[in-house]
Amino acid sequence: MKEKSTKRIWKVISASSMGTMIEWYDFYIFGSLAVVISTKFFPADNPTAAFLATLATFAVGFVVRPFGALFFGRLGDIIGRKYTFMVTLLLMGGATFLIGCIPSYETIGFMAPVLVLILRMLQGLALGGEYGGAATYVAEHAPVGERGYWTSWIQTTATVGLFISLMVILGTRNLLTPEEFDLWGWRVPFWVSIIMVGVSYMIRKNMDESPVFAKAKEEGKTSKNPLAESFGNRYNLKFVLLALFGATMGQGVIWYTGQFYAMSFMKTVMSIESSQVDTLLGIALLLGTPFFIVFGWLSDKVGRKYIMMGGMLIAILSYRPIYQKMYDTTDVKNKIEIVDKTTIVAELKENKKLAMDSIYTTNKAYTDGTTFLEIKTVSLENGKAMIVDGKPKVETKTTVNINDSDKWSLVLLIFIQVLFVTMVYGPIAAFLVEMFPVKIRYTSMSLPYHVGNGIFGGLLPAISTYLVINAKEAGDLNFFLEGLWYPIIIAGASFVIGMMYIKNKDKKNTHV
Question: Among 64, 69, 88, which Cα is nearest to 16's?
Answer without folding.
Answer: 88
